Amino acid sequence: MSKSQRFNFTDNPDAFGVVDSIPQLAFILIKDSNFVEVSGLLDTGASVNVLPYDIGVKLGANWNEQTTSVMLAGNLAPVEARGLILSAQISEFSLVRLVFAWSKSNEVPLLLGRMNFFREFNVCFYTSQKVFELSQK
């Protein structure tokens, strides 16, 4: 069994100014020799990991070279997205490959969803304590 690590929830004001604590994870995304420090929302309701357009561009990805179309659902259904595989360095864990639906919009949040963040990591939420725990599979 891999070591686990706890992370604090992040306090974020909503659209009405009410502060809510959310499970948000800071980590580094890597593509070739480019890297970007990001923060993503752990979303058990998201089918896929979602990446905003500008982050993919900062990593040197070319939209026209990504040929796999991805259909998003829910609020993100109207947004065009394409598959993009990146490496991620999350805290002290081993480097992991994450598959993203790279959206053609910057109006989407970076989401860590069931495909494939929750397949690479076991996650336990301790919401009353405002922490979550990760262990790599």
What descriptive keywords fit this protein?
three-stranded antiparallel sheet; 137 residues; 2 helices; 12 strands; mainly beta
Count of separate DSSP helical elements = 2
Order of helices and strands: EEEEEEHEEEEHEE
Characterize the overall form: globular
Helical coverage, percent range: under 10%
Our estimate of the beta-strand percent is: over 45%
Question: How many E strands?
Answer: 12
Distance between the termini: 8 Å
Please compute the radius of gyration using only Cα atoms: 15 Å
Query: Pairing-aware structural class of the strands and helices?
Result: mainly beta
Biggest sheet: strands, sense, closure? 7 strands, mixed
Kindly report the average pLDDT value. Answer: 96
Runs in which pLDDT lies below 50 for 5 or more consecutive residues are none
Task: Provide a compact summary of the structure.
This protein is mostly beta strands.
SSE diagram, text form:
Elements (H helix, E strand, L loop, with lengths): L3 E5 L1 E4 L5 E4 L1 E8 L2 E9 L6 E3 L1 H6 L10 E2 L10 E9 L6 E8 L7 E2 L4 H4 E6 L4 E6 L1
Parallel strand pairs: 5-10, 6-9
Antiparallel strand pairs: 1-12, 2-3, 4-5, 4-8, 7-8, 8-9, 11-12
Description of the structure:
This protein has 137 residues and is mainly beta. It contains two helices and twelve strands. The chain has helices at 53-58, 117-120, and strands spanning 4-8, 10-13, 19-22, 24-31, 34-42, 49-51, 69-70, 81-89, 96-103, 111-112, 121-126, 131-136. Strands 4, 5, 6, 7, 8, 9 and 10 form a seven-stranded mixed beta sheet that branches. Strands 1-12-11 form a three-stranded antiparallel beta sheet. Strands 2-3 form a two-stranded antiparallel ribbon. The protein is globular, with a radius of gyration of 15 Å.
